[in-house]
Batch of 3 targets.
Target 1
Amino acid sequence: MKKKIVVGAVMLTAAVATGALLYAMHDFPFETAAAAPARPSPVPIVAGTVSQHDVPIYLTGVGTVIAYNTDVVRAQIQGQIFTINFTEGQHVHAGDLLAQIDPRPYQALIDQYTGALERDQAQLANANANLVRYTQLGAKGWATPQLIETQKAQVGQLDGAITTDKALIEAAKVQLSFTRLTSPIDGVVGIRQIDVGNIISPSSTNGLCVVTQLDPISLIFTLPETVLPQIQKQQQINKAPLTVIAYNQDDTIELGQGQLGLVNNEILQTTGSIQLKANFSNKENKLWPGELVNARLLLDTRHNGLTVPAAVIQQGPSGAYAWVVNPDNTVAIRQVKVAQISDGQALIDSGLSANERVVVDGQYKLQPGTHVIALHGKAAEEAAAQDAMQTPIP
């Protein structure tokens, strides 16, 4: 009996407690319910706009500058260097005197041959006079035909000797001209390889010096063989040489603009690339032989092309994408196709439209649907700098 009374009391107490709890929840709901979560604040970003304008399409390769002409000035005769008439690094023109070989032995040879010519000419005059006399005597029967024929042969012999003498004199004059070592081209003189007083000869390995033509100048660069059909197509369309622009290795300084002169007649099997040669006017000498440069072949110009800053383009498992800012200031991921990235600008083939807003900095904080606020001016610069510091290195 007592056990039943205890159980009943416990049940009554539980019922009272439950009723009190329901009464409290009904009359005081804000005191018992959990507070609703606050809406997160917008994420600060740096935004940009999709621009539309004419965009040049480049094929970029690495090349080496080579001289348009390079000539080693060598001696064609042997002799002692008499004078040096240039300074190293001097700009010279074709025909300028660079050095003088001692001309006296060759001038003496010309004098010798000239003397022989004068002697033979005097003997020829005497032989001609005798022939006239013998011919007159032969007409009267006082000279034999044999004597006259012999005299004619002597005249012919002396004529031949004079011809030989003249040829020897001309050859000696050529040899004498070789004592003047002149520049064969316009260009810049390199390091002098021999000093005054030394003997130079055709067998001298280094010659006198090297003259290098710098204006115009050439550039040989390579591109993948896969772009060859595009180049050939543009050459047929343009009917004019394609433009090539040379930049320094950092792509910060334009060194010159030239024209494509040659697509080599074979593909390099070891690298799967094609060699191209461009020629540049180089009046300011910005291009120098042996210099390693970046070459941009202007293939085409896309009219009304869409561009965004290169920082807009992100890479994911599905390829390139960009964060697009919606009109309600939320963001969404948009897959894009990039044609090229050049000079900090990405040319978009598909995925974006003109004047759309895109995220330039701050992407690492975003998720689809995130509300954002665009920063401007100094705040945008500071956010970009902070974003660069916080972005994980891949």
Target 2
Amino acid sequence: MNNILILGSGRSGTSMLTGILVKSGFHLGENFEYLKKDKANPKGYFEDYEVNTVNEDILKENLISIPETLRKWIFPSFTFYRARWLAVIPKGKKIKTTSSIDNRIEVLINKPSFCYKDPRFSYTLPIWKKLFKKNNIAAKYLVVYREPFKTANSIVRECEENKALHPLKMTSERALKVWESMYSHILENYEKDIQKENWMFVHFNQLFSLEVLEKIEEFIGGSIDKQFPEKQLSRAEDLGNELSPNLSGIYNQLKKYSF
């Protein structure tokens, strides 16, 4: 089986996509069930604690840290530690790392047939790719996405239901900026990669297509759990909002790279 990273913003179907692969024999991490099942993800999140922590620490090196008392009242939109899967980072920003973080990533990627999922990969992927190259490790990238407003509404609901995220005071407008920022970075990384055969883009709705599931099997080099996706578990609402030209452009580009 191929080594896999699952890419996509939070609340876009990354958990469902990873869940399809759970029984495939991949190494998902030493502690990939630390995020417990809840209303948002009744089947699980499938994110490894160390993978998430490494990515959080990378973003900590690259984002402004504001004392919570100040952030809460003056800069509520600024993310804080453990909430940076909701960060907005300008496209083109060079992400830096440290030698100690690199060493931790090298431990993670020197596992046979790994499959790691974290929305933060949208920003930290260049660091991981650099270390793949250094360690002569081949990896493939599975990108999942869905309609921007559906994702934004789901992010807002998640922030309302999760007490730890209440301080962000998330709005639909800011959630759309998260979607825009993450997929801008993903597309930028894809377009720079000369080995585009190592990428696969899938719309959330395509995860219910047997034809697409079979293509995922071919892409990963292993079998998957085709019974895992359940459309009725999705709580996302489509309110029929009109996309801005920029959001529409990104969404259309993602669809262009899909089946």
Target 3
Amino acid sequence: MSATPTSLRVAAVDLGATSGRVMAGRVSGRGIELEELHRFPTGGVRVAGSLQWDVLGIHREVLAGIARVAATGPLDGIGIDSWAVDYGLLDRDGQLVGNPFSHRDSRTDGVAVRVLEQVPASDLYAVTGLQQLPFNTLYQLVAARGSAALESAATLLLLPDLLAYWLTGRIGAERTNASTTQLYDVRTREWATDLLGKLDLPAGILPPLRDPGTVIGPLAPDLAREFGVSDLPVVAVGSHDTASAVVGVPAEARDFAYISSGTWSLVGLELDQPVLTEEAREADFTNEGGVDGTVRFLKNVMGLWVLSESVRTWQGRRLRNADLASLLAAAADFEPLRTVVDINDPRLLAPGTVEDPMPERVAALAAEAGEVVPRSPVAITRCILDSLAIAYRRQVRTAAALAGRDPEVVHVVGGGTQNELLCQLTADACGLPVLAGPTEAAALGNVLVQARALGADLPDLAAMRALARASFDVRRHDPRTDLDWDAAEARATR
């Protein structure tokens, strides 16, 4: 591979819903090197009874991270990826109208039911191809109808596009993230303006669409001076973090399943065309845009959010051995499949509170299902991990059946790769080898798309993944066959 006459070094801003990081990524003929130079929390803030994002604080930390990259070596480009569906509104002067709401805020409770009374679910799926999630951007906008913020808005920008706007002054929406909103036609790859009209939503606030790999524009002059750079391009990467993470999957086989495992888990396949059948709609699978015109056919699974919220509760109670490493070590020796629950139950969505902590919610679900109620942190930890593995199994198998594919391997990428117990349980449950790694797949995909946009010889996803395989190790987990996962899945879904 020939990147440039020398090499490229870029800043990859990778934002998760609990933490963000700015990575320096170097791409050369020898491979890819990633270095984390700045990490910061991104969690929501309670404001007057609602859950909002401190987006200015996030922007400040993004600037600090880019400055670190610029101060420690050459800088050839910047790319931003983040979680999906949440947005900021700009007025006609280009100023932010209030804080963006978190998708975990309760304002969308019950909104989907009202929307489906106006637009049948089958019609909605035929256009957008999306899983019915209560916090999709469509439902957030319907919840905001009649508000002063929406009525005064001139432009809607999803979070990575908002941050890119503050870096460049250029307005637009990158397609992989736009495809998560339920405002986007997955067939035409344009905004679904007819749908917005049916729901009395202002289509005029939706910005022009752009493809991943597009150079958005140069860094604003004042920021360039601050960072000591000139003519620095900001690149639209796969700005949905899962789109970037799928680029970073080091797959060799064409038929692979992936799990982007973090706060959320995204479980699915990479396809050439969307699957818009009635069976796919009834299974509540989503068709989201990927890099190079691919489709991410996947299902959202609750993810490690439930465990992290439980650990937060236990540490707040100052329980002994409540750190994650100790809990996972003990859970590995705990009785397997003793208690399983539906880990996607909507009651696990909101953050835990003093009055309604996450561990007690898990125990209540177990009691409701007639399972052995887990009482200790270790028992609850094992319950969560077993239940996650069952959810992964169910969605990998359902995706394969709906798409007519036969995956040979499951690639797990993201923060969940560090949870070796969960990776082994996933192999056991799916009955397929699991290849775990890299951990920073979203940042890796971000860097790869930037590198190609800036001149690297990476003509397609296969070339990007070959470079990823050459640059990062993965851990293989082969399936064990000593447990009855069929019976456990039936218990978790009854």
